[in-house]
Design a protein that fits this description.
single chain, mainly alpha, Leucine-rich Repeat Variant, 5 helices, about 55% helix, globular
């Protein structure tokens, strides 16, 4: 999968992220986009992923956390631990 996605796919996946993140009917598409983003290796997308940790969908929260853990430095992830899990 990494070979099919990779860094050149980042702009397309970024656009998909923006489209699907605001559409409650696109949970599966957003989940797949997040999975693909985890293989891109572009940490500049982290600020766009952070709000998804508070998604109403547990699937999106889990995939967002996984993607962040793959893109971010460990110290970035450690800063998130006090806010995890999100309070509802």
């Amino acid at each position: 999968m990494a070979m099919l996605v990779g860094p050149p796919a980042a702009p397309l996946l970024d656009r998909q992220l923006e489209t699907y993140a605001n559409d409650p009917k696109s949970v599966e598409k957003l989940e797949n986009t997040l999975l693909a983003l985890s293989y891109v290796g572009d940490a500049s997308l982290l600020p766009k992923l952070m709000p998804l940790l508070s998604s109403t969908s547990p699937r999106i929260r889990v995939q967002a956390a996984d993607t962040i853990s793959r893109l971010a430095e460990p110290s970035y992830c450690e800063k998130l631990l006090p806010s995890w899990p999100p309070r509802t």
